[in-house]
Write a structure and sequence with these properties.
By secondary structure, the chain is of the alpha+beta class. The protein has three domains: 150 residues, Periplasmic binding protein-like II (D-Maltodextrin-Binding Protein, domain 2), CATH 3.40.190; 176 residues, Dipeptide-binding Protein, Domain 1 (Dipeptide-binding Protein, domain 1), CATH 3.90.76; 222 residues, Dipeptide-binding Protein, Domain 3 (Dipeptide-binding Protein, domain 3). Strand 8 and strand 9 form a beta hairpin.
């Protein structure tokens, strides 16, 4: 479709074009065909689902150890239930697998030892009881070299984990030096010792079938909130273990097919019945879930619809009941950002997330060339040359607050306000000159990586135009398909890259920790001993308000001095659903609805 008038004016000002306008316009004239095709591709052999939900992005993985993307987390919490669960209605942490009769957990006076009793009624989808050893198995798998991913560092808060991993990594290096003909024997001895060391030294302990004990290296104020994350979910160890491979290198691997339908069992409200790549999934109610009597919806089609206009057409024609994110160009008019709201079924609300650009801070680029962005003055200049208010007013246009910080203001109780670097083109130009690149002279071309979905290209075009106008920078835009984009980010194969972050729990560290040097989510390759020192000291500060003030100092340092990121705006999310048809839909900033709380009031067309 063509850009709305306000966006067209802004586009003309900065020389932005939308090359997809004709194809989008063509999609609009085929609403019934588009809707019917999208749905029929997903479930040709299955009866119609009770509820049809659409998301705009592909599922990357349903392996709790590897999950880090919002769309994956949203699905994982329907399939699995951890010890604690985040209440989407804003009620804090609820009991999950832990027995509410004895409390979600018992902690000692120093808040370093927690004991969780698994509910007697907790069952896997095949009827097996959920046991403490299912958590021990899943957590060990999530922290082991080979299977550990972005959130593995969370486990280093537990006694023995850091030492165990240090030993494992040293042994992996040693095994690499063993002659190939002797390596299998040496690896077998290593794995036997690894099992013994984990049982002996790591304080993730199944005291019996139902009691799990966890000992922390120090008090963690947000530990129960942390446990709501996907990396702490249990797995049905008897089926998942069949896909395990203990390599002679000392690394642990799993055949990813264990995540496919019919390969394992689930302890959440739903089980995975069907999964079609880039099409969607079918969820069916888990009859063995301990709260199954309260689950209203028997089956859900979770459909992937990448094109925002096609998703809206499918919603309008009844092929979809709930759009998890409305990204079409006409969304601002629907939510009333430029006048009265046009629709009672379109709901805009603040999200616990921030849209930003990562800056590669490594001294050299992957090709070995010097990285001009390693100079913080260049990073500061780029940040101050971007008019974020103009981007929000003229491109995104959904009421997003322009951002100068990483943490959305006002979302964490008692957290002090922080001011980042505001738009100041003249000051930006001076900083770039101080760095040795007056008006961009001598500065190599800067690449900006983004994924092609959801209008990220328009934002990138605007940023590139601003940097050219205010700093004389040459910016090369690189738009990629989602999976290629993710791979480039993980390999730090970029100079500037689109990014976003939604808080995993209600504490500033949920945002700030992603820029620790050892964080698996640190895509900027940012390593600053001073920032890590400040974070460590702040997290140990006694007193609730004092701790939050110290963490605010960390964020201030991050967004004013260090700048491994360029905050652009804080998210506003838009749902589309008929409140006369669906009830129990929570407008939670975390964007993690529990489908077991949703009920269908009537069946639409």
């Amino acid at each position: 479709m063509l850009l709305p008038a306000a966006a067209l004016s802004f586009a003309a000002m900065w020389g932005i074009s939308d090359r997809r306008s004709l194809s989008r316009a063509a999609a609009i004239v085929m609403p019934l065909a588009a809707g019917a095709y999208g749905l029929s591709r997903l479930t040709p052999r299955l009866p119609a689902a009770d509820l049809r939900v659409a998301d705009a992005v592909s599922i990357a993985t349903l392996d709790p150890a590897q999950i880090s993307w919002l769309q994956d987390i949203r699905l994982a919490i329907q399939l699995y239930e951890g010890l604690c669960v985040d209440d989407p209605s804003g009620g804090g942490v609820m009991a999950g697998c832990a027995d509410p009769v004895t409390g979600a957990s018992q902690a000692n006076e120093s808040a370093t030892t927690y004991r969780f009793r698994i509910r007697d009624q907790a069952r896997w989808s095949n009827g097996d009881p959920v046991e403490a050893d299912d958590f021990v198995f899943a957590w060990r798998r999530a922290l082991e070299p080979g299977t550990a991913r972005d959130y593995a560092y969370f486990f280093e808060k537990i006694v023995g984990v850091a030492d165990y991993l240090a030993w494992r990594k040293a042994e992996i290096s040693r095994l690499a030096e063993v002659p190939p003909e002797d390596r299998a024997t040496a690896a077998a001895r290593h794995w036997s010792e690894a099992d013994e060391r984990f049982r002996r030294d790591v304080r993730i302990v199944a005291e019996d079938a139902r009691m799990l004990r966890i000992e922390l290296t120090r008090p963690v104020a947000y530990f129960r909130e942390l446990l709501t994350g996907p990396v702490f979910l249990p797995l049905h160890r008897h089926t998942v273990r069949d896909y395990e491979r203990r390599d002679a290198s000392g690394l642990l691997f799993y055949d990813s097919r264990w995540c496919k339908p019919g390969r394992t069992h689930y302890n959440g409200a739903y089980l995975l019945a069907d999964w079609r790549f880039k099409r969607g999934l079918r969820l069916n109610k888990n009859p063995h879930y301990h709260g199954a009597a309260g689950v209203q919806i028997g089956s859900i089609d979770w459909i992937e619809v990448a094109d925002a206009n096609t998703a809206w057409i499918m919603y309008e024609t009844g092929s979809i009941d709930w759009l998890l994110s409305l990204e079409a160009g006409f969304t601002p008019e629907l939510v009333g950002r430029e006048g009265p709201s046009l629709r009672h079924d379109v709901r805009a609300f603040p999200a616990f997330g921030t849209y930003f650009y990562n800056i590669n801070c490594a001294p050299r680029m992957p090709d070995g060339s010097p990285n001009p962005l390693a100079d913080r003055r260049v990073r500061q200049a780029i940040t101050m040359a971007i008019d974020r208010a103009a981007i929000c007013a003229e491109i995104t246009r959904r009421g997003e607050p322009p951002a100068t910080t990483l943490i959305p203001p006002g979302t964490i109780a008692d957290y002090p306000g922080v001011d980042g670097l505001a738009f100041d083109a003249e000051a930006a130009s001076r900083l770039l000159a101080e760095a040795g690149f007056p008006r961009g002279r001598g500065l190599p071309e800067i690449s900006l990586l983004y994924n092609n979905e959801a209008g990220h290209g328009l934002i990138a075009q605007a940023v590139a135009a601003m940097l050219k106008a205010h700093l004389g920078m040459r910016v090369r835009l690189i738009g990629k398909e989602a999976q290629s984009y993710r791979e480039d980010k993980q390999r730090h194969n970029f100079m500037i890259a689109r990014a976003s972050w939604y808080g995993d729990y209600d504490d500033p560290t949920s945002f700030l920790d992603i820029f620790r040097a050892d964080s698996g989510n640190n895509d900027s390759a940012y390593a600053d001993p001073e920032f890590d020192r400040m974070l460590n000291a702040a997290d140990l500060t006694q007193g609730h308000l004092e701790r939050l003030a110290a963490l605010a100092d960390c964020e201030r340092y991050l967004v004013r001095d260090a700048l491994p990121l360029i905050p652009l705006f804080h998210y506003t999310n838009v749902y589309a659903y008929n409140p006369r048809r669906l009830t129990g839909v929570s407008l939670s900033p975390r964007l993690l609805p529990l489908m077991r709380q949703v009920a269908l009031l009537e069946r639409g067309p």
